[in-house]
TrEMBL record:
Protein name: Glycosyltransferase 61 catalytic domain-containing protein
Keyword Glycoprotein found: yes
Organism placement in taxonomy: Eukaryota, Viridiplantae, Streptophyta, Embryophyta, Tracheophyta
Residue ranges, annotated region (Disordered): 127-162
Biological process, per Gene Ontology: plant-type cell wall organization
Entry membrane topology: Single-pass type II membrane protein
Length: 162
């Protein structure tokens, strides 16, 4: 993920920090280490905004449209990619489970079709953490993810990082 996101920084004008919008959720598919993810993105050079879609649709749409990177756990929040500018990045964190088809067909392929750069990362929670999340934070996701696919501007996929 870091390599893909570093390319965004390189493509920005000098002195301009790229904008990252992290869509947070309160219930299921919650990012358990949201603060750590936001801090890591800030350390990479992003201006990070964490927001949850609310009643002010126009204000939220403006946030999405201004974002160079939209990061969200798999779910309805990723439908906001339809108002992202062309060549922006959509980073989908896919929770643990058998979600290949949904992740690709609901958000991955549509992002590519809209000329967005798409990256998906898959949860690699340990067995112990999965058990803990079932009992205390059901439906939540811990972002210790491994990049699976990266799509460049030309639609070519880069090899999976080792």
């Amino acid at each position: 993920i870091c390599t893909s996101l570093s390319l965004i920084i390189i493509n920005k004008a000098p002195g301009m920090r790229p904008q990252m919008l992290i869509i947070s959720r309160g219930g299921t598919r919650k990012l358990l280490n949201l603060e750590e993810v936001a801090a890591a993105a800030t350390e990479l050079g992003f201006n990070v905004t964490v927001a949850e879609a609310g009643a002010d649709v126009a204000a939220f749409a403006a946030l999405v449209n201004a974002a160079d990177v939209l990061l969200a756990v798999h779910g309805a929040g990723l439908t906001n990619q339809i108002i992202q500018p062309t060549q922006a990045v959509v980073l989908q964190i896919v929770p643990w489970g058998n979600m290949d088809w949904m992740a690709t067909n609901f958000y991955g392929q549509p992002a590519r079709d809209m000329q967005l750069r798409y990256v998906d990362s898959w949860s690699t929670m340990s067995t112990r953490r999965r058990r803990a999340s079932r009992t205390s934070t059901r439906g939540s996701t811990w972002c210790s993810a491994t990049p699976r696919r990266c799509t460049s501007r030309g639609g070519r996929r880069s090899p999976r990082p080792s």
